[in-house]
Design goal:
The complex is a heterodimer.
Chain A lengths: L1 E7 L5 H12 L5 H4 L5 E8 L3 E8 L5 H5 L10 H7 L1 E4 L1 H11 L11 H15 L1 H4 L4 H20 L9 H13 L6 E5 L3 H11 L4 E6 L2 H8 L5 E4 L3 H4 L5 E4 L10 H7 L8 E5 L16 E5 H39 L3 H24 L6 H31 L4 H10 L2 H9 L1
Chain B lengths: L2 H25 L7 H25 L7 H20 L8 H18 L13 H35 L5 H5 L3 H34 L7 H18 L6 H26 L8
């Protein structure tokens, strides 16, 4: 049976989630250890900063407590609180859950792109151990391949991944709406703290030329060293403005660092080309009046949040379309999964038929001693081919009937007609 | 309706379809012009091209003489420019302005009836054809610059007013619009200048002297001045925005000048 046990941002706070993730990262919890359990046939462990989930194919007898025991055990979390964070899913719910996860419908940030790579990575990590430890068998292999296909469809057929959903990406989106590409543009980053570092990495990733401006040249140099940028002191800021395309202000100064008077002094007619100023500091670094200067585009954190909120609103509107794709994927997988039920019956049918064929051929050949070895082989091949052709259509029909969910009567009929029920009784007796 | 009319009508239908698809893309809040809209533009330009080829074959002359034929050719050149601009992914929303403009021109051509004007033979030579063709390339350049300028002003306003809605998402970056507008103006000015030189040479050769009272000459000179002033407006502070505004205003002036000249002058001119 398909089973899932895990915790996510829906059920556990970040300090709990990070402890689970740390356990996995530190290698203290290994999938291979799960094989010690007699109940587990296949397993994949998905571990990200927002979720730790164990997907497994188990025998039907396994209970929640046994499942919990297979999850990582971070220190400092007792059994009672552990159970409060963890959820369990079984059967089709597991399929639905994984398909929603990989499509980022279950993510903290709806539509985020990383989850698909994380699911792929978890699947591939388990598959790497496949040869020695049989971690990923036919069911999980099919489940994860289907999930990744569904995830790709959701990304390509809906606009769930469109737009900026974080402060850095919103800043880049705004910049690109002004400049198109940011490659070669001159960006001035004012400040050298944590926000400046995030801004630096973001802008450097777009191949912009960067100058870092800070109160002390040393801290400016330290940040600039992250990507071959220039560094200078804040006193030089007015001189940098006329040649700047983008200014990102992120200091911890209690007063305005860029004032309308400063901009008016160095750019009396306003900049010839658009100048984008992103004020991501709290308290704000840029005087509001600067935004009124022609060709200056001034945005603060609230504006960036509005860009993100707009994105999220559009993404939420895409959820029904994504759910439709997921529903199709779940139905397709479930059909395949149901068809697995008939595999033992088909195997039995073929074995029984082969036994009969072999016995009859042997009996016939005993009375046909005059036949050459070549003729005997021909008789053997002929009967095998006959049997294969006779069994082909019933096999296909059985699979189809079971996949369609109405196979119980047909399976019973097949057992009755081919005497497989008696065979079972004999085996049992 | 003959083959030429049918092909024009097919082109118009495809332009209308393209316009509807582009508008629905904007209304749906999508970021990019969809593939069906691009196919519709390609089909429209192809049908339009076939219509003009059919005209040339049937009447043995290029569709450059007479109001309806020349309007159709001008619309085709703007369509070709639009098609060229769609190669640049970010410039595709220009269709939002250009497709209705082309549609209107085609409609006018169809209403007038696309057939030869019966003008004198002197209007059918190579020099004359080259003059008209270059002038139309100039006007097509101005139309493209106008559409880029108009979208620039809309996007500029959305950015300045922090209105991050559908228009903000759909419209191209300011830089792209500025670049397309600038190139269209430079190309258009070059073509129109060449056309005016040819017109001067042709008139001097066949008519002895160039009269500035000719309304077509007046319109050509007004357009040339619009080109020059639009490019000049791009110099100095806030040049991009001023350039965009000047181009939009200039295109409007050219249209108004056409209407005024058409009302004030007696009919019988080739293009007025």
């Amino acid at each position: 049976m398909l089973t899932l046990a895990g915790l996510s941002h829906h059920t556990a706070p970040v300090d709990v989630r990070e402890r689970f993730a740390a356990e996995v990262q530190a290698g203290r919890h290994s999938l291979v250890d799960l094989l010690a359990s007699e109940h587990v046939r296949e397993a994949v462990l998905l571990s990200t900063c927002n979720r730790t989930e164990l997907y497994a194919v188990t025998d039907g007898a396994i209970d929640d407590t046994a499942l919990f025991s297979m999850l990582p055990k971070p220190p400092g979390i007792d059994a009672a609180s552990f159970q409060q964070f963890v959820y369990v899913r079984r059967g089709q719910e597991v399929v639905q859950h994984l398909f929603r996860v990989v499509s980022s419908l279950d993510s903290m940030i709806l539509g985020e792109a990383q989850i698909q790579g994380q699911v792929r990575s978890a699947y591939e990590s388990a598959a790497k151990l496949q040869r020695e430890h049989r971690l990923v068998g036919p069911v999980l292999s099919r489940l994860f391949e289907s999930a990744l296909r569904v995830g790709s469809r959701v990304r390509s057929e809906t606009r769930l991944g469109d737009g900026a959903a974080s402060i850095p990406s919103a800043a880049v989106e705004l910049a690109k709406k002004i400049f198109g590409s940011l490659a070669g543009r001159h960006a001035v980053i004012v400040g050298s703290g944590e926000m400046s570092e995030i801004a630096f990495d973001c802008i450097a990733g777009e191949n912009a030329r960067i100058t870092v401006v800070s109160r002390s040249e040393e801290s400016a140099r330290r940040l600039a060293a992250r990507g071959g940028a220039k560094a200078t002191t804040i006193g030089q800021l007015p001189d940098l403005l006329p040649a700047a395309d983008i200014v990102i202000a992120a200091t911890s100064a209690p007063h305005n660092v860029i004032t309308a008077e400063m901009v008016g002094r160095v750019l009396p007619k306003g900049p010839k080309q658009p100048l984008l100023i992103l004020d991501i500091a709290l308290p704000r670094d840029v005087e509001t009046e600067v935004g009124a200067v022609t060709n200056v585009f001034l945005y603060n954190l609230d504006d960036l949040h509005r860009v993100i909120e707009g994105t999220m609103e559009r993404r939420r509107a895409e959820v029904p379309f994504a759910e439709g794709i997921i529903e199709e994927g779940v139905a397709e997988f479930q059909n395949w999964y149901n068809s697995l039920e008939v595999v033992p019956l088909i195997r039995e049918l073929r074995q029984r038929s082969e036994q009969i064929r072999a016995a009859e051929v042997e009996r016939a050949l005993r009375s046909l001693r005059h036949l050459s070895e070549q003729d005997r082989a021909a008789v053997d091949v002929l009967t095998r081919q006959l049997l294969a052709k006779l069994l082909h259509q019933p096999t296909v029909r059985l699979r189809e009937a079971v996949a369609a969910g109405d196979g119980a009567d047909i399976v019973n009929a097949a057992r009755y007609l081919f005497e497989l029920d008696r065979q079972l009784e004999n085996d049992a007796g | 309706m003959g083959m030429i009319g049918i092909l024009h009508a097919i082109a118009l239908a495809f332009y209308l379809l393209a316009g509807a698809l582009v508008a629905s893309t904007l209304a749906a809040g999508q970021r990019e012009v969809t593939r069906p809209a691009l196919f519709a533009i390609v089909a429209a330009v192809a049908a339009h091209c076939a219509a003009l080829v059919a005209y040339s074959v049937e009447y043995g002359e290029l569709p450059l003489v007479g109001l309806a034929a020349s309007v159709s050719t001008l619309a085709f050149l703007i369509g070709a420019g639009l098609l060229l601009s769609t190669l640049l992914r970010q410039a595709r929303p220009l269709a939002l302005v250009l497709v209705p403009l082309i549609g209107m021109l085609l409609l006018v051509a169809l209403m007038l009836g696309v057939r030869p004007s019966g003008a004198e033979l002197e209007f059918r030579g190579v020099w004359f054809s080259l003059h008209v063709l270059m002038a139309f390339i100039g006007y097509a350049g101005l139309a493209i610059a106008f559409s880029a300028g108009l979208l620039y002003l809309l996007q500029f306003r959305a950015l300045k007013e922090k209105n991050f809605g559908r228009a903000f998402r759909f419209l191209p970056p300011l830089e792209t619009l500025d670049s397309v507008g600038q190139r269209a103006l430079v190309l258009g000015l070059g073509a129109l200048s060449f056309a005016l030189l040819l017109a001067w040479a042709w008139t001097v050769r066949f008519r002895g002297s160039l009269t500035l009272r000719n309304p077509e000459v007046i319109w050509g000179v007004v357009t040339w001045l619009v080109f020059v002033s639009s490019l000049a407006a791009r110099r100095g502070g806030a040049g991009d925005r001023r350039g965009a505004a000047a181009t939009v205003a200039g295109f409007t002036v050219v249209l108004l000048a056409y209407v005024v000249l058409r009302v004030l002058t007696a009919s019988g001119h080739l293009f007025l």
